[in-house]
């Protein structure tokens, strides 16, 4: 590596840290981990079966924020978990989506998904998504 590449490398690192900061990565990881620890055992999600289990959207790449907003709104309406934490997550996702703060996660305001999953699967999707940004 020659010395002329050093400014580019430093600038790239700075951009990544700014993106992670704008995405509230640490805060979202902390909240999501807490919710996963307090959530009951995995509840099977079947859209055809009538059950008390919530079926939440598992986002397609690039549509995570819209699906995270939709999923956390559903959780709030149905008192799935700790409402204070869910409300904070929902607000963070809405802000990121509306201000395009996490560009890789927001290609519009429509939640696109092929599958739905349990609350635990939904929370794990949030956690994996933000852990990938944090790397």
Automatic annotation (TrEMBL):
<dbReference type="GO" id="GO:0005140">
    <property type="term" value="F:interleukin-9 receptor binding"/>
</dbReference>
<feature type="signal peptide">
    <location>
        <begin position="1"/>
        <end position="20"/>
    </location>
</feature>
<dbReference type="GO" id="GO:0005125">
    <property type="term" value="F:cytokine activity"/>
</dbReference>
<dbReference type="InterPro" id="IPR020447">
    <property type="entry name" value="IL-9"/>
</dbReference>
<dbReference type="GO" id="GO:0005615">
    <property type="term" value="C:extracellular space"/>
</dbReference>
<protein>
    <recommendedName>
        <fullName>Interleukin-9</fullName>
    </recommendedName>
</protein>
<keyword id="KW-0732">Signal</keyword>
């Amino acid at each position: 590596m020659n010395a002329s590449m050093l400014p580019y490398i430093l600038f790239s690192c700075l951009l990544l840290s700014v993106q992670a900061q704008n995405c509230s990565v640490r805060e979202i990881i902390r909240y999501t981990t807490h919710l996963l620890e307090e959530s009951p055992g995995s509840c099977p999600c079947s859209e055809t079966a009538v059950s008390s289990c919530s079926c939440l959207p598992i986002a397609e790449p690039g549509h995570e924020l819209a699906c995270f907003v939709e999923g956390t709104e559903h959780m709030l309406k149905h008192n799935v978990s700790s409402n204070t934490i869910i409300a904070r997550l929902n607000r963070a996702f809405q802000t990121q989506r509306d201000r395009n703060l996490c560009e890789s996660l927001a290609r519009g305001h429509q939640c696109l998904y092929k599958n739905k999953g349990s609350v635990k699967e939904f929370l794990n999707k949030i956690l994996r998504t933000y852990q990938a940004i944090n790397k």
